[in-house]
Design the sequence.
């Protein structure tokens, strides 16, 4: 029996993308044990993993800041004996941990993020416009290099259990009609569809025989969502009202989620819910598309400058965000309607 240490600290979407592989790995290697280390608030993502997966939550900012914090984490982790350390983050913190574990005699492997290919995909001129390996496959490659073959056959975190509807029914009420989730925000501007156009989409469906749930976490986001909740019928904002565990359960009962290239796309994907996603400065070719999602449900337009960024964090050098502005609400409404009527 081998004990494997796995580390991925952030971001939410990236950690969510580890779940399909960690789950499949644990199911396909039931004789081995796996310890997943990530930020404490992400524990619900791993609640439904097989019993040979243990989650250790930490708070990087308050509990383990800087390299001193990583040394402290190493001392805590090294109390247990690990056969291998899978670094599926590959940042300065985890590089330092790799060094410490390697010096301690632990077999160490790390992710190849494909940085060179991503630069070629996003450069202004002479782009190499080809689909890159997905993040999920890059994670899987790390475990294969350790000697643990794995096939990504994951479907949903709720595969072997029932999503407990009683945890959300006080907010949602009984499900009688189709349910739509709308998650209109992302971390960077290059990923966010114009808010006024998202409101057009909301207004269209609010007068259909559906119930709409609005997702968002920041203070400004919650203010927008709560205003929409008051303005439109059959609309409920869940921002700040429920935790991650409840959000996953709610997503499981959605008929379709409309989101940006954001964490909510990945969270909904973990519940096998169909996602209509908008892509502006970023592109599914970079390898961050929602696990198991149909590529036809990605809403995007062809522009010579796309993608200009992997994360959507670079300012638009055209200064017009045509990649987002040229997507009409009608295009998105058509995708959502098709899934609702299927």
Sequence:
């Amino acid at each position: 029996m081998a004990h494997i240490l796995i580390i991925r600290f952030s971001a939410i979407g990236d950690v969510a993308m580890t779940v399909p592989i960690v789950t499949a790995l644990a199911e396909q290697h039931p004789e081995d044990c796996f310890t997943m280390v990530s930020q404490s608030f992400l524990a619900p993502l791993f609640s439904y993993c097989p019993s040979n997966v243990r989650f250790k939550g930490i708070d990087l900012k308050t509990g383990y800041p800087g390299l001193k914090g990583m040394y402290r984490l190493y001392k805590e982790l090294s109390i247990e004996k690990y056969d291998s350390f899978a670094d599926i983050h590959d940042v300065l913190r985890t590089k330092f941990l790799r060094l410490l574990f390697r010096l301690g005699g632990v077999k160490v492997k790390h992710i190849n993020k494909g940085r060179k290919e991503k630069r070629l995909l996003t450069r202004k001129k002479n782009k190499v416009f080809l689909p890159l390996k997905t993040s999920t496959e890059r994670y899987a490659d790390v475990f294969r290099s350790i000697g643990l073959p794995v096939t990504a056959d994951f479907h949903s975190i709720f595969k072997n259990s029932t999503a407990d509807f009683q945890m959300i029914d006080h907010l949602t009420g009984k499900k009688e009609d189709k349910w739509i989730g709308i998650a209109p925000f992302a971390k960077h501007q290059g990923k966010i569809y114009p808010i006024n156009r998202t409101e057009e989409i909301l207004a269209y469906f609010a007068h259909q025989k559906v119930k709409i749930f609005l997702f968002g976490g920041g203070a400004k986001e919650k203010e927008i969502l709560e205003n929409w909740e008051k303005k439109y019928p059959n609309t409920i904002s869940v921002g700040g009202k429920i935790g991650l565990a409840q959000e996953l359960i709610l997503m499981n009962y959605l008929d379709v989620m409309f989101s940006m290239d954001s964490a909510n796309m990945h969270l909904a994907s973990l519940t096998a819910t169909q996602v209509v996603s908008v892509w502006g400065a970023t592109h599914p070719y970079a390898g961050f598309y929602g696990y198991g999602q149909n590529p036809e449900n990605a809403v995007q337009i062809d522009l010579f400058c796309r993608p200009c960024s992997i994360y959507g964090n670079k300012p638009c050098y055209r200064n017009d965000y045509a990649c987002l502005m040229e997507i009409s609400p009608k295009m998105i409404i058509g995708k959502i309607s098709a899934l609702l009527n299927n």
Q: What stands out?
A: The two ends are 46 Å apart (CA to CA).
